[in-house]
Amino acid sequence: MKIAILTLFPLAFENVFSESIIKKAQDKKLLKITLVDIRNFAHDKHQKVDDKPYGGGKGMLLKVDVLVEAIESIKEKPYIILLSPSGKTFNQKKALGLSQKKSLAIICGHYEGIDSRIEEFVDEVISIGDFVLTGGEIAAMIIVDSVARLIPGVIHPESLETESFSPKYAKEKSGGFRLEHPQYTRPENFRGHKVPKILLSGNHQKIDQWQKKESVKKTRKTRPELLKN
Ligand code: ADE
């Protein structure tokens, strides 16, 4: 999969994308990330990428002409995402859908916003949650991270099956979206906090039932709205 990120701050991505699973995905050639510096598409020698809003108002807006030319510089025809707090909320289902695309372009907004005509040039506007960031860069990192791990070959499929929000886990274990059950490793007793006995029993059927029950219990406690759907 190819992902192009259109940003005014390409350097912000370097460390995040050169570590751990995202790095491995790129090393294995399952993922190619390109950082497109929006400023390279400015029309004047001052590299101006923003301007005052028509009708007045505070702050500056990213210019639509500059952004569209940056999009058009991407060779493969990508599925284009604009990041904005006013977009549709991102979730695991959306991550799965995006992981099946061949080529993505992600536009990071900045300043007070972007000329609204940009929406006519994108496929989808996405928000990562009901809060406002200073720009789209961190949102883009979150989307790339959650999408990259779902590309076939990046992570062992068994790890994906049992995690929170996994459609397969939901179907087999609990009949709906649930949070993942608690897990433990050694030591068996840490300062009096013991690993549940059932997990030491070796009875896989019983362990499976326990995990299902704990998953529902945890969901009821922290995300009860998931059980209503
Ligand atoms: N840019 C600023 N806030 C954002 C958000 N919540 N999601 C995506 N992009 C953003």
TrEMBL record:
Residues 200-229 are annotated as: Disordered. S-adenosyl-L-methionine binds at G109, I128, G129, D130, F131, V132, L133. One of its GO terms (biological process) is tRNA N1-guanine methylation. Residues 1-228 form the tRNA methyltransferase TRMD/TRM10-type domain. Pfam families: tRNA_m1G_MT (PF01746). Residues 205-229 have a biased composition (Basic and acidic residues). Signal peptide: none annotated. PANTHER family: TRNA (GUANINE-N(1)-)-METHYLTRANSFERASE. It is found in: Cytoplasm. Its main location: cytoplasm. Belongs to the RNA methyltransferase TrmD family. Keywords: Cytoplasm, Methyltransferase, S-adenosyl-L-methionine, Transferase, tRNA processing. Homodimer. GO terms for molecular function: tRNA (guanine(37)-N1)-methyltransferase activity. This is tRNA (guanine-N(1)-)-methyltransferase. SUPFAM superfamilies: alpha/beta knot. Its EC number is 2.1.1.228. It catalyses: guanosine(37) in tRNA + S-adenosyl-L-methionine = N(1)-methylguanosine(37) in tRNA + S-adenosyl-L-homocysteine + H(+).
